[in-house]
Design a protein that fits this description.
The complex is a heterodimer of chains A (about 350) and B (about 160). With about 350 residues, chain A is an alpha/beta fold. Chain A has 13 helices and twelve strands. In chain B, about 5% of the residues lie in helices and about 30% in strands. Chain B is globular, with a radius of gyration of 20 Å. The termini of chain B are far apart. Classes of the chains: A alpha/beta (about 350), B mainly beta (about 160).
Chain lengths: ~350, ~160
């Protein structure tokens, strides 16, 4: 395996509505900042890959428009996934493993404010049996939460504590959308949104974007004093049909964690892409996180959930802490699909 | 199967508030006042119209706004012989890329009031605006472009130059 590291990360301020700014205008300053931090120019970057969804923008080929943010002249080597930018990072990592290029630019972006995101997400469901019923994303998450509460020792109080901790952590994240001191008992006194979920159990609706630069071997060492090396990365998917899955566990995360080698050493921190509080409880168990692991120092997806960028941002947040010397070994996670259907696990280490 | 299901209907409707972007919004508002707004790239100095807020070649933000005249030169064109569903324009009609004077990027529009077989690259054209009271935030404020009668212009980089 070739040594590949994250050497640069930027993200947009996470906001409820980016207003008149389009995706190009959101991305352009971020790409410039990420490249500047990496000391590479776009023409020196070997491969570019992005993650986004036309369903968010409501416009076909919106990812092609986004290339205006790069300056793709002379023409560049580029690809796109209709998934969170974390999967674009995976494609770029594979490309770097091939050995033909030494660096990659990866970005994910989305304006959830353009449409009704709870309905838009219904279009990723089975088109014959499920999508025509328009189950919205919060209701599906609530089904999962109910199943977990009924089959485990977890309680709504555990969920409220997840919300309180993430938003407390987000106070030190200037890009976070929701942050502050919340008391879990006070949160539990709030009414249900979709039972058993209360508002604090759900992610905010967020417009945002994230950009990462990857570099291999000596190039990474030249760019960064302390590159965040990708020591393992794997992603797995569960069946499309919700009825055949055990929603109280995340076997795809368990398997991806095993393949990525999460348990091969002690962890200092975990950045989990858990848009709903109960999903963090499921992921903690799936990853086997022990007491003492700092979970979501950034505030995670409960503090800001830019769809198509939130998973990539988890990897970037973990890498930033490693490069900054705040951690030596971290696990970052990204999810996609309803009720944690697809999961990506990435193990990062300092030197 | 005796009674195969050949079709099911699952209607989809989603409502969006599409964002043109800051620069394009200013371009569209300019049209409502009869102004054509481009932007100059701070890096390559090219003038881009419609204003996009970005230079796609350089990947940098464009801020300097340039008001462009409503006349220019045809750089390339095609003659459409098939009707476009929902369009009031009757074939044959001419779609052209028109480089407005002072711009470096061609604008896409119709050329009319000339037989299609007489349209040519290098031909000088000017905009024919609809009556002011019909103006809105759209390029359709310009009905089409028509020949000015000026001598043809030699196109830079043209194989026919």
């Amino acid at each position: 395996m070739r040594d590949v590291a994250i050497v640069s990360f930027t993200q947009a301020p996470n906001v409820r509505d980016a207003g008149a700014m389009n995706e190009v205008e959101i991305l352009m300053p971020l790409v410039a900042e990420a490249l500047e931090k990496s000391t590479l120019t776009l023409q020196e970057i070997g491969f570019t890959c992005s993650g986004s969804s036309d369903y968010l923008a409501g416009a076909p080929f919106s990812f092609v428009m986004a290339i205006d943010a790069l300056g793709a002249w002379p023409p560049i080597s580029e690809s796109h996934v209709e998934m969170d930018g974390a999967w674009a990072l995976y494609e770029a990592w594979v490309k770097l493993q091939h050995g033909a290029v030494d660096s990659a630019l990866v970005y994910g972006f989305g304006k959830s404010s353009s449409g009704e995101i709870r309905d838009v997400l219904a279009l990723q469901l089975d088109p014959y049996y499920v999508a025509p019923l328009w189950p919205d994303s919060v209701s599906l998450a609530a089904l999962q939460a109910r199943a977990l509460l009924e089959s485990s020792a977890y309680s709504e109080k555990d969920m409220a504590e997840v919300a309180a901790r993430n938003r407390r952590n987000a106070r030190s994240n200037p890009k976070a959308q929701l942050s502050g001191d919340f008391d879990s008992a006070a949160l539990l006194a709030e009414p249900y949104l979709v039972s058993p979920l209360r508002k604090h159990d759900c992610p905010p609706i967020t417009d945002g974007a994230a950009v990462v630069v990857l570099a291999a071997d000596d190039l990474a060492r030249r760019i960064s004093k302390r590159p965040a090396w990708i020591r393992g990365i794997d992603h797995r998917i569960e069946p499309h049909s919700l009825g055949v899955r055990d929603l109280t566990r995340s076997p795809s995360t368990e398997l991806a964690a095993e393949k990525a080698g999460v348990a091969r050493g002690p962890l200092d921190l975990a950045e989990l892409h858990a848009p709903f509080t109960h999903q963090e409880l499921i992921l903690r168990d799936a990853l086997g996180l022990k007491h003492g692991v700092d979970i979501n120092p950034s505030g995670g997806a409960l503090a800001a959930n830019p769809i198509m960028a939130a998973g990539l941002a988890r990897i970037g947040e973990a890498a930033t802490r490693i490069s900054g010397g705040l951690a030596n070994r971290a696990v970052a996670h990204a999810t996609s699909g309803p009720c944690l259907q697809q999961n990506l696990v990435c193990v990062l280490e300092g030197e | 199967m005796d009674n195969p299901i050949e079709e099911i209907q699952t209607p989809i409707r989603l409502d969006y508030r599409y964002t043109a972007g800051g620069a394009t919004a200013r371009f569209l508002r300019g049209l409502k006042e009869g102004r054509i707004l481009g932007q100059r790239c701070p890096s390559c100095q090219k003038v881009i119209v419609p204003a996009r807020g970005a230079c796609a070649r350089c990947g940098v933000a464009t801020k300097e706004e340039i008001e462009l005249p409503d006349r220019g030169t045809v750089t390339t064109f095609c003659v459409v012989h098939i009707p476009v569903p929902g369009s009031a324009v009757k074939p044959p009609f001419v779609c052209a890329t028109i480089k407005l004077d002072g711009a470096d990027i061609g604008l896409f529009h119709l050329v009319s009031e000339i037989p299609p077989d007489e349209v040519r690259p290098g031909m000088r054209v000017k905009a024919q605006w609809k009556p002011r009271e019909e103006w809105d935030c759209t390029l359709e404020n310009i009905r089409y472009f028509t020949p000015t009668g000026e001598p043809d212009v030699e196109l830079e980089g043209s194989a026919h130059a």
